[in-house]
């Protein structure tokens, strides 16, 4: 499919810059001015709470409206996103580096509050500040940047996947069933993300990470460009896709999505109300602080297992002819296995004996009976 790609030239970089900056600026304006849920964040290390406007669902909805109007009203196609792929990739990298440098310089200049960096790192402090971030929760004109960057990341990967469908229609005159399948999976993955966006407020990145190059690059480059990988294999796909494959794969996807989202929502409900009901019964806990009901009694990081399975479903839409799309679930597995180990350590230090008791009760870290 590489014949669709245009070479990187100054004019294609200019087109890419307009696309990327226009997209990020539109989302930022939406996040700043469109309505969203008002939520109080969890306590920060100094005891204060940040107030968030969660406009994700509005932005997700507006993206569909804008795309529908542009396509059906003005005949706009997203195929150029695929044709200018490498230029867009370069521009996104430049944006990520520039934003990281800006945050680094601003955070250090105003000695902003930050979460402590992971201990034992031999790198000089300034380099750690650049990589992990020099400020815990920076704003830009009233928009919390850490929460904001999830939008170009997630809506970005979604738009790239949609662009593969446009490119396929332009090339073959039809969008193949497996491409529709991947699109539908991403639609539900994001819909279930945005419908309870507030669960993000209790995630590790929001509660314990500063905003530096690691997260900025992850949001602006790693997620959109790596997570859209199966689209390249769907573009040239000609294998038939039977209704049995549709049904089997959809059942697998929705089951995985349910585990992933329900686990996160159970924890979020528990953090809000320790007496909440999980699966029809009052939440069972270790020491009143750690949830052992529902999915949290099956494995300590069952939410990771659910998400990995979701990504396996994304890769399965491409069939089995190539191993490359499976690099996506594989890379997520490596990332989350390493993250689960770090989180176990962090929770061990925070909860002490309670964590030991929890680990004895729930023996598996991510995959029941495996790991
Ligand atoms: P979690 O949402 O699992 O949060 C971990 C924290 O939850 C712990 O540090 C601890 O925090 C608390 N906790 C852990 N176990 C319990 C328990 N039994 N009862 C109560 N609290 C508990 O992890 P992440 O923030 O890493 O991930 C959030 C979601 O984001 C996951 O579903 C993950 O799959 C997804 N993710 C996706 C990525 C991607 O690239 N697609 C990358 C990273 C994450 P505390 O000290 O506050 O109690």
Strand order of the largest sheet: 1-2
What small molecules accompany the polymer chains?
A: NADPH dihydro-nicotinamide-adenine-dinucleotide phosphate
The major pleated sheet works out as:
2 strands, antiparallel
Oligomer: single chain
What's the number of extended β-strand segments?
8
C-alpha Rg (nearest Å): 21 Å
- Tell me what portion of residues adopts beta-strand conformation: 5-15%
Task: For the record, give the distance between the C-alpha atoms at the N and C termini, rounded to a whole number.
Answer: 38 Å
Low-confidence stretches: none
Mean pLDDT: 92
Helix content: 55-70%
User: How many distinct helices?
Assistant: 15
- Form type: globular
In short:
By secondary structure, the protein is mostly helical.
Question: What do these coordinates show?
Answer:
The chain has 15 helices and 8 strands. A two-stranded antiparallel sheet has the order 1-2. It has a two-stranded antiparallel sheet with strand order 3-4. A two-stranded antiparallel sheet has the order 5-6. It folds into 2 domains: 1-240, no CATH class; 241-371, no CATH class. The chain is globular and about 60 Å long. The chain starts with 9 loop residues before the first helix and ends in a 10-residue tail after the last helix. The chain has helices spanning 10-33, 56-74, 79-83, 85-109, 125-132, 145-148, 150-172, 177-194, 204-208, 213-227, 230-235, 243-272, 302-316, 327-351, 353-361; strands at residues 37-40, 51-54, 139-140, 143-144, 277-278, 281-282, 285-286, 290-291. It has 371 residues and is mostly helical. It is 62% helix and 5% strand. The longest helix has 30 residues, at 243-272. The site of NADPH dihydro-nicotinamide-adenine-dinucleotide phosphate has 18 residues, from helix 9, helix 12, strand 8, helix 13 and helix 14.
């Amino acid at each position: 499919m590489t014949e669709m790609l245009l070479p990187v030239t100054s004019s294609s970089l200019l087109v890419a810059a307009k696309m990327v900056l226009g997209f990020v600026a539109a989302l930022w304006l939406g996040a700043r001015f469109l309505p969203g849920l008002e939520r109080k964040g969890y306590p920060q290390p100094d005891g204060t709470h940040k107030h968030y406007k969660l406009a994700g669902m509005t932005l997700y909805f507006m993206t569909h409206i804008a795309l529908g109007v542009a396509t059906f009203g003005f005949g706009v196609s997203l195929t150029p996103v695929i044709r200018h792929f490498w230029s867009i990739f370069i521009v996104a990298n430049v944006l990520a580096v520039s934003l990281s440098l800006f945050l680094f310089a601003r955070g250090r200049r105003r000695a902003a509050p930050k979460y402590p960096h992971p201990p034992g790192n031999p790198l000089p402090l300034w380099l750690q500040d650049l990589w992990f971030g020099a400020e815990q929760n920076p704003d830009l004109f009233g928009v919390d940047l850490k929460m904001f960057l999830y939008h170009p990341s997630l809506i970005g990967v979604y738009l790239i996947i949609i662009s593969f469908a446009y490119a396929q229609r332009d090339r073959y005159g039809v969008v193949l069933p497996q491409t529709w399948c991947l699109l539908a999976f991403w639609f539900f993955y994001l819909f279930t993300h945005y419908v309870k966006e507030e669960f993000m407020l209790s995630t590790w990145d929001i509660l314990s990470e500063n905003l530096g190059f690691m997260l900025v690059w992850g949001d602006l480059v790693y997620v959109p460009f790596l997570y859209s990988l199966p689209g390249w294999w769907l573009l040239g796909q000609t294998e038939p896709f039977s209704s049995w494959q549709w049904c089997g794969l959809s059942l697998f996807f929705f089951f995985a999505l349910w585990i992933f989202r329900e686990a996160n929502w159970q924890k979020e409900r528990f953090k809000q109300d320790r007496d909440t009901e999980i699966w029809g019964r009052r939440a069972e806990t270790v020491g009143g602080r750690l949830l052992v009901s529902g999915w949290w009694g099956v494995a300590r990081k069952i939410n990771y297992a659910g998400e990995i399975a979701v990504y396996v479903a994304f890769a399965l839409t491409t069939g089995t002819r190539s191993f490359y799309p499976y690099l996506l679930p594989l890379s997520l597995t490596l990332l989350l296995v390493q993250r689960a180990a770090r989180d176990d350590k962090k929770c061990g230090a925070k909860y002490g004996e309670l964590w030991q008791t929890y680990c004895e009760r729930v023996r598996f870290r991510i995959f029941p009976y495996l790991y």
